Each structure stands twice: as C-alpha cells, then as structure tokens.
Amino acid sequence: MNMEELLERALSNVTESRVKEAMRYSLMAGGKRIRPNLLFEVLKGYGIDPMKGYEFACALEMIHTYSLIHDDLPAMDNDDLRRGRPTNHKQFDEATAILAGDGLLTEAFHLAASAAVDPAIVVKGIRILSEMAGPDGMVYGQILDMNEDPASTYVDIRKVHKYKTGCLLSAPLMIGAAIAEQPDDIIEAWHEVGEKLGLAFQIQDDILDITKTAEDLGKSNSDARNEKVTVVNLLGEEASRAEVAALYSDCRSQIAKFRGFDSASLIKMVDAIEARMK
Ligand code: GRG
Fold first, then answer.
1. CB 207 near ligand 1, within 6 Å
2. At residue 86, what are phi and psi to the nearest 5 degrees?
3. Residues 105 and 70: beta-carbon distance below 8 Å
4. What share of the chain is helix, strand, coil (3-state, %, to 5)?
5. Domain ranges in the chain?
6. Does the CB atom of residue 164 touch ligand 1 within 6 A?
7. Cβ(37) to ligand 1 under 6 A?
C-alpha cells in the first residue's frame, strides 16, 4: 500500500460528516509526505518492517496537515492556496477549517494509541508526538513566529525554525528509533538530526519562495505580504544556499554514524529533499 492508500484507510473509521469531508480535502491533496517517509526510512534502516510505523506515520501526516490548515487561516497567515488547491477555509468556511484541523489533530492521537507495537512503545511514541507537536514544540515555534521582532537576527530565526519546522521533522526520526527500541541518548541524537533537517528545509523554503511562483509551489507566499524576516533577507541568497548545503551535509554525516543503522536509503531521501523544487 502506498501512503495515499494508508491515509485513506486511516480515515475510513471516521464518521462521515462535513468535518470529515474538510479533513479529507486537505489530507488527500497530495503533499510530499516527507514526515511519514522519514519514519519508514528509519525503521527500514534498523531492519524493521515499515508497516510497524503505519499508525504513527498517518498520525504525523494528520498533525502536519492540521498545522497547515490552521496556519493558512485569516487569523494566522491568511493564505489562499495550499497543496495546489484553495486553502481549507476558502473551500469550506473558517469554522469548518478550524474543526478540520482539530479533527485531524485529535484523530492522530486516536490512531497512534492503537499502533500495533508494544504498549510501552506506544506510550513513548505518543509522548514524543505530543512534545514535538505541542506547546514545547511546533505550537511554541508558531507563537514565536507570530510574535517575531522585526529586528530578529539569524540566531532568533534559527530558534523559530528549530521549533516550528524542526520538531515535526524530528518526531518521525525519534519515533522510528523508539520503535527500534533504541536508548534515550540515541533518540535524542535523532532529535538533533531533525532540527538540522528542519533548519535546512526552512531556509530552502525561503529560497524557493523568492525563486519560484505560487503556481510552481502550489501554495501562496504570505511571507512578503506579512513582512516576515527570512534567513534569505538576513544572509542573502548565496550565503543562504551555502548554509543549506552545509546543514544537509551535516545531517548526512550524523545519520551515517548511527550504530546498527543501514543509512544508505535515508541518506538518499535527504539527497532528494535537498534537490526538491517545491
Ligand atoms: C498552526 C500550530 C500551527 C503550526 C503551524 C507548519 C506550520 C506551523 C506552518 C506552515 C508554514 C510553514 C512554512 C511551516 C514550516 C514547515 C513547512 C516548511 C511546512 C511545509 O511542509 P511541506 O513542504 O508541505 O512538507 P507538504 O504540503 O509537501 O506536505
């Protein structure tokens, strides 16, 4: 089964309603599925059947999709286009979009709680998921971003990206390591890889925003309209590109060092993320 079929299966237990229609609208709109695939790659690298991570993989994509729906709302970035389609509140209405996000977030934990792995690992995975997505993770990053000081430095912006983008990229790496029964210091090392990946990913996003059209990217760029400070504004395009290359290269060397981990396939995925055009 591919990721689209897995997500359809994950949604199939939810009661049919307008909120489910709105959840499906954004969840099944494509997207690169990076977070679930990171989890599958970590499991493969540790020699574990990727399907052991099916519930957590779908949960991650649901949480990611909820964050996009809420981020696009008029009260946040007020965007019109996402994943090549009108944003959720444009297609439905604001109240339904809020509920679609709430529904995806809650259903993610319902799914994770029924993961077919040892109950102690389920609890550990849920703890990682909530820490990385919640007010100590992505939600913290979002409030930092919303309250951004126009005089922010690269150090300040790194902190925003570490939480807003990095945490939800760390989560699949950490959950994969938890399912592979790795000790806590190794799970923490995967957390750091995710932070670097998140920073590289976000700077790359800022570069794509100024070099590609909304049509190419399938999403509107509200950063310029909202006068956001970006790494590209602070460092310039050339230095930003060099920073992205250095961060991805760092990720690859860290990944190659994990003991008992066959890193080739995950490193290939990092290469593909680095080469992405949207
Ligand atoms: C509303 C709680 C809350 C959080 C919002 C995800 C997010 C935090 C904001 C969206 C805007 C943004 C640029 C976030 C940084 C993370 C990021 C680059 C998201 C886009 O991820 P992709 O490129 O998207 O993986 P697809 O659509 O391919 O899944």
1. no
2. -55, 145
3. no
4. 70, 0, 25
5. 3-274
6. yes
7. no
Return d(Cα 185, Cα 92) in angstroms, integer.
45
Angle, alpha carbons 211-88-163 (nearest 5°): 60
Q: Give the whole-angstrom CA distance, residue 31 versus residue 36.
A: 11
Q: Could you tell me if the CB of 139 is within 6 A of ligand 1?
A: yes
Domain 3-274, second-level architecture: Orthogonal Bundle (1.10)
Let me know the angle formed at the C-alpha of 218 by 213 and 220, rounded to the nearest 5 degrees: 65
Comparing CA positions, the residue from 178, 173, 142, 175 lying closest to residue 160 is: 142
The residue whose CA has the least distance to atom 4 of ligand 1 is 67
CB 244 within 8 A of CB 206: no
Q: Which atom of ligand 1 is nearest to the CA of 70?
A: 1
- For residue 163, the CA-to-ligand 1 centroid distance in Å is 12
Question: What's the pLDDT tens digit per position in 106-131?
Answer: 999 999 999 999 999 999 999 999 99
Instruction: Show the tokens assigned to 77.
Output: 């970035």
**pLDDT, tens digit, for every residue of 172-212?**
999 999 999 999 999 999 999 999 999 999 999 999 988 88
User: Can you state the angle between helices 18-27 and 54-72, rounded to 10 degrees?
Assistant: 100
Cα–Cα distance between 83 and 202 in angstroms, integer?
17
* Amino acid at residue number 260: G
Q: What is the dihedral of CA 94, 85, 78, 158, to 10 degrees?
A: 120
What span, in angstroms and rounded, lies between the C-alpha atoms of 200 and 217? 18
The Cα angle at residue 108 between residues 133 and 70, in degrees rounded to 5: 55
Cα 215 to chain centroid distance, Å, stands at 21
Stretch 3-14: mean pLDDT, rounded?
A: 95
